[in-house]
Amino acid sequence: MYYAYKYRLEPSDAQRKELDRHRDICRQLYNHTRYRLNEYRENHGELPSMTTLRSELPALKKWWDGLNDVYSKVLQTVVERLFNNLSSLSALKENGYGVGQLKWKPPREFRSFTYNQSGFELDKKGGQTVLSLSKLADIPISLHREIPDDAALKQVTLKKEPTGEWFATFGVEVDREPPQKPDQPKNVVGIDVGILKYAHDTDGHAVESVDLSDERERLEREQRNLSRKEHGSNNHEKQRRRVAECHADLKNKRRDFLHKLSNYYAREYDLVAVEDLDAKGLVQLDGNSRNRAGAAWGTFLRMLEYKCEREGTHFVAVDPAGTTKECAACGVSSEKPLWVREHSCPSCGFTADRDWNAAWNILSRGIKQVGAGRSESTPVETALPTGTTSVPAKRVLEAGSPTLKERTASAVSE
Ligand SMILES: [Zn+2]
């Protein structure tokens, strides 16, 4: 299995300059190669082979001094990536898709370069963990979580964010198969991912979305300040960075929350059922919050899916149509406007909170889809009493811990 681990680098000012210099040499090589490929195609009517292209690098180094300062595999990766992108573009074109050309990259748009297979290692220097990069530097790195012992480091990508911070993302291969998924999942859960609130699940947890209002306010304030600065001035550039930092803060906080939430479900259960992205539900929101909710939802589903894979947990995304209308106890559908928070079945009399009823429907669809044949558990004896008690996101943030269940359970009965 292949994983990515991302860490913050803490380069000195001198190292920061070196990183930027290497990045810029890679950028120039990218632009040069792009030009070279287009020229070749005009003369020969097709792209050169990867081997031809790679074999040109040594000759290039004879007159282009800067190239010799960069680790050779890093340069190869620049050329290979460009080549691969261009070939897939050409393939699209041949199949009749209208696609643009690869563009010349200005410094701002070329943010990363990659050490592949060799030329990098993690090391200790004077008690500090450093990322040792051939022909570049030993850069202090903050390893806030461990890379598994049995993992092989395949590559590392160094990237400069618009905030000016540098990050290293390791591509890591672990030589073990993901655990088997159980034929008869015992510990199962359905999650109703609300659009505005966060999640309700069939075990009675209600998880509120993380509160980002302070961060949003700050972002708006900094954006207003930016609009008052003179374009191209030093102050403008400084303020632009501050805005980028705000964007990064928001994104990190949201991602962190989604990581923890998805981790929790993937670890605690044998089967996790969620609704597939519900385009119809999203349409009810206005543009901005629709994009935000849609993006967060998609991210959550992707995280949940790969984490379930890793933990040997069934992941099922079910058809979202009608999950709130259907009665989880008898299956009869009844219309419910959005403001009706309680499900009360006209046919069998079952009552439950609207979102919990939905979660139960999601779970039984999920179980059916996996074919696990364990849908006889009716919600009636397990569903919680009507009346939602929301659990603040803080509780999830503290968790990933096995005590989350107890804590939330007591919070619900309070
Ligand atoms: Zn019913």
List keywords for this structure.
414 residues, alpha+beta, five-stranded mixed beta sheet, 11 helices, 19% strand, disordered C terminus, binds zinc ion, metal-binding, Transposase
Note down, in words, how this protein is organized:
Helices cover 44% and strands 19% of the residues. It is built from 11 helices and 14 strands. The protein has helices at 13-44, 50-55, 57-63, 72-94, 213-228, 234-268, 279-283, 287-311, 354-370, 393-398, 404-413, and strands at residues 2-9, 112-116, 120-125, 128-133, 137-142, 151-160, 166-174, 188-193, 199-201, 206-207, 271-275, 314-318, 342-344, 351-353. A 7-stranded antiparallel sheet has the order 2-6-7-1-5-4-3. A 5-stranded mixed sheet has the order 10-9-8-11-12. α5 (213-228) packs antiparallel against α6 (234-268) and α6 crosses α8. Bound molecules: zinc ion. Residues 327, 329-330, 332, 345, 347-348, 350 line the site of zinc ion (ZN). Zinc ion (ZN) is lined by residues 327, 329-330, 332, 345, 347-348, 350. Residues 173-284 form the Probable transposase IS891/IS1136/IS1341 domain. Keywords: DNA recombination, DNA-binding, Metal-binding, Transposition, Zinc. This is IS200/IS605 family element transposase accessory protein TnpB.
